[in-house]
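Appendix B, example 12.
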Amino acid sequence: MRWRGVHHVEFSVLDYPASVAFYDKMFGWLGYASFSTLDIGYRSTYYVARLPVPHSYIGIQPARAGGKLNHEDRATGIHHIALWARNRREIDDFYREFLKGNKLDVSDAPQPYDVYAPGYYAVFFEDPINGIHWELAHTPRIPSPRAFLKWKRALDAQKAEHPKWDKSVIRQALRKLPRR
Protein backbone atom coordinates (compact mmCIF):
# COMPACT_ATOMS: atom_id res chain seq x y z
CA MET A 1 0.00 0.00 0.00
CA ARG A 2 1.31 3.46 -0.84
CA TRP A 3 1.95 5.81 2.06
CA ARG A 4 1.50 9.00 0.03
CA GLY A 5 -1.10 10.02 -2.50
CA VAL A 6 -0.90 12.54 -5.33
CA HIS A 7 2.51 14.18 -5.76
CA HIS A 8 1.23 17.24 -7.58
CA VAL A 9 -1.38 18.52 -10.00
CA GLU A 10 -0.66 21.25 -12.51
CA PHE A 11 -3.22 23.29 -14.43
CA SER A 12 -2.76 25.27 -17.62
CA VAL A 13 -4.52 28.58 -17.04
CA LEU A 14 -5.85 31.47 -19.08
CA ASP A 15 -4.52 34.95 -18.28
CA TYR A 16 -1.59 33.77 -16.19
CA PRO A 17 -1.09 37.02 -14.22
CA ALA A 18 -4.80 37.24 -13.29
CA SER A 19 -4.81 33.53 -12.37
CA VAL A 20 -1.73 33.95 -10.16
CA ALA A 21 -3.42 36.92 -8.44
CA PHE A 22 -6.61 34.87 -7.82
CA TYR A 23 -4.79 31.79 -6.53
CA ASP A 24 -2.43 33.88 -4.39
CA LYS A 25 -5.50 35.34 -2.70
CA MET A 26 -7.32 31.98 -2.37
CA PHE A 27 -4.38 29.89 -1.18
CA GLY A 28 -3.10 32.75 0.98
CA TRP A 29 -6.47 32.82 2.78
CA LEU A 30 -6.16 29.07 3.38
CA GLY A 31 -2.63 29.47 4.82
CA TYR A 32 -0.69 27.85 1.98
CA ALA A 33 2.85 28.79 0.94
CA SER A 34 3.88 29.42 -2.65
CA PHE A 35 6.99 29.06 -4.79
CA SER A 36 7.85 29.75 -8.42
CA THR A 37 10.07 28.17 -11.07
CA LEU A 38 11.49 31.68 -11.64
CA ASP A 39 10.98 30.86 -15.34
CA ILE A 40 13.96 28.49 -15.21
CA GLY A 41 13.15 25.89 -17.86
CA TYR A 42 9.43 26.63 -17.77
CA ARG A 43 6.99 29.02 -16.13
CA SER A 44 4.89 27.81 -13.19
CA THR A 45 3.67 28.97 -9.80
CA TYR A 46 3.05 26.40 -7.08
CA TYR A 47 0.95 26.31 -3.91
CA VAL A 48 1.76 23.96 -1.06
CA ALA A 49 0.09 23.30 2.30
CA ARG A 50 3.39 23.00 4.15
CA LEU A 51 7.09 23.69 3.69
CA PRO A 52 10.09 23.22 3.73
CA VAL A 53 9.48 19.85 2.09
CA PRO A 54 6.22 19.82 0.12
CA HIS A 55 4.01 16.78 0.60
CA SER A 56 1.91 17.51 -2.47
CA TYR A 57 1.28 20.70 -4.35
CA ILE A 58 -0.85 22.40 -6.97
CA GLY A 59 0.75 24.28 -9.84
CA ILE A 60 -0.44 26.62 -12.55
CA GLN A 61 1.25 27.48 -15.82
CA PRO A 62 0.24 29.60 -18.82
CA ALA A 63 -2.08 27.81 -21.26
CA ARG A 64 -1.10 27.74 -24.92
CA ALA A 65 -4.63 27.08 -26.18
CA GLY A 66 -8.19 26.51 -25.01
CA GLY A 67 -10.94 28.44 -23.31
CA LYS A 68 -12.67 28.77 -19.98
CA LEU A 69 -14.02 25.50 -18.58
CA ASN A 70 -17.70 24.99 -17.88
CA HIS A 71 -18.13 22.54 -15.03
CA GLU A 72 -21.74 21.81 -16.00
CA ASP A 73 -20.62 20.50 -19.43
CA ARG A 74 -18.65 17.67 -17.80
CA ALA A 75 -16.28 17.65 -20.75
CA THR A 76 -13.21 15.44 -20.82
CA GLY A 77 -10.68 16.59 -18.25
CA ILE A 78 -10.65 17.18 -14.53
CA HIS A 79 -14.10 17.35 -12.93
CA HIS A 80 -13.03 19.11 -9.73
CA ILE A 81 -10.24 19.19 -7.21
CA ALA A 82 -10.78 19.02 -3.45
CA LEU A 83 -8.60 20.62 -0.80
CA TRP A 84 -8.50 19.50 2.83
CA ALA A 85 -10.04 21.88 5.36
CA ARG A 86 -8.97 21.83 9.01
CA ASN A 87 -12.56 21.67 10.20
CA ARG A 88 -16.13 22.68 9.34
CA ARG A 89 -15.61 26.14 10.75
CA GLU A 90 -12.80 26.83 8.28
CA ILE A 91 -15.18 25.91 5.45
CA ASP A 92 -17.92 28.20 6.81
CA ASP A 93 -15.45 31.06 7.30
CA PHE A 94 -13.94 30.53 3.83
CA TYR A 95 -17.43 30.58 2.31
CA ARG A 96 -18.47 33.74 4.12
CA GLU A 97 -15.22 35.70 4.04
CA PHE A 98 -13.49 34.59 0.85
CA LEU A 99 -16.11 33.24 -1.53
CA LYS A 100 -19.02 35.54 -0.68
CA GLY A 101 -16.68 38.41 0.22
CA ASN A 102 -15.19 38.26 -3.28
CA LYS A 103 -18.56 37.57 -4.96
CA LEU A 104 -17.34 34.26 -6.39
CA ASP A 105 -19.61 31.68 -8.02
CA VAL A 106 -20.51 29.03 -5.44
CA SER A 107 -22.14 25.96 -6.97
CA ASP A 108 -22.90 24.27 -3.63
CA ALA A 109 -22.93 26.18 -0.34
CA PRO A 110 -21.38 24.50 2.73
CA GLN A 111 -23.32 21.43 3.75
CA PRO A 112 -22.88 17.87 5.01
CA TYR A 113 -22.60 15.05 2.48
CA ASP A 114 -23.63 12.17 4.69
CA VAL A 115 -23.36 9.53 1.98
CA TYR A 116 -19.67 10.34 1.19
CA ALA A 117 -18.09 9.56 4.59
CA PRO A 118 -18.93 10.02 8.27
CA GLY A 119 -18.88 13.77 9.02
CA TYR A 120 -18.05 14.84 5.44
CA TYR A 121 -18.71 18.57 4.97
CA ALA A 122 -17.84 20.71 1.95
CA VAL A 123 -18.35 23.77 -0.24
CA PHE A 124 -17.95 23.79 -4.05
CA PHE A 125 -16.96 26.84 -6.10
CA GLU A 126 -15.53 28.03 -9.42
CA ASP A 127 -12.28 29.72 -10.34
CA PRO A 128 -13.64 32.88 -12.05
CA ILE A 129 -10.87 33.07 -14.66
CA ASN A 130 -10.46 29.47 -15.83
CA GLY A 131 -13.67 27.79 -14.67
CA ILE A 132 -11.80 25.15 -12.65
CA HIS A 133 -14.24 23.62 -10.14
CA TRP A 134 -12.93 23.43 -6.56
CA GLU A 135 -14.09 21.86 -3.33
CA LEU A 136 -12.97 22.67 0.20
CA ALA A 137 -13.80 19.59 2.27
CA HIS A 138 -13.44 18.25 5.78
CA THR A 139 -13.66 14.66 6.95
CA PRO A 140 -12.98 14.21 10.67
CA ARG A 141 -10.15 11.86 11.61
CA ILE A 142 -12.41 10.31 14.22
CA PRO A 143 -16.08 10.87 13.39
CA SER A 144 -18.61 11.25 16.15
CA PRO A 145 -21.05 8.37 16.77
CA ARG A 146 -23.81 10.65 15.43
CA ALA A 147 -21.88 11.33 12.19
CA PHE A 148 -21.23 7.60 11.80
CA LEU A 149 -24.94 6.80 12.25
CA LYS A 150 -25.97 9.48 9.71
CA TRP A 151 -23.50 7.98 7.23
CA LYS A 152 -24.78 4.45 7.88
CA ARG A 153 -28.39 5.59 7.39
CA ALA A 154 -27.46 7.38 4.16
CA LEU A 155 -25.79 4.21 2.83
CA ASP A 156 -28.76 2.07 3.90
CA ALA A 157 -31.08 4.44 2.00
CA GLN A 158 -28.92 4.05 -1.11
CA LYS A 159 -28.97 0.25 -0.80
CA ALA A 160 -32.78 0.32 -0.53
CA GLU A 161 -32.89 2.16 -3.87
CA HIS A 162 -30.76 -0.56 -5.54
CA PRO A 163 -32.39 -3.95 -4.89
CA LYS A 164 -29.91 -5.73 -7.23
CA TRP A 165 -27.04 -5.00 -4.87
CA ASP A 166 -26.44 -8.27 -3.05
CA LYS A 167 -23.75 -6.96 -0.65
CA SER A 168 -23.34 -4.00 1.66
CA VAL A 169 -22.79 -0.67 -0.11
CA ILE A 170 -19.12 -0.65 0.89
CA ARG A 171 -18.49 -4.21 -0.33
CA GLN A 172 -20.46 -3.42 -3.48
CA ALA A 173 -18.30 -0.33 -4.11
CA LEU A 174 -14.87 -1.94 -3.55
CA ARG A 175 -13.08 -3.00 -6.71
CA LYS A 176 -10.09 -5.28 -7.24
CA LEU A 177 -7.24 -3.81 -9.23
CA PRO A 178 -4.69 -5.86 -11.13
CA ARG A 179 -1.34 -6.15 -9.37
CA ARG A 180 2.16 -6.55 -10.78
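The radius of gyration is 19 Å. The chain is about 25% helix and 25% strand.
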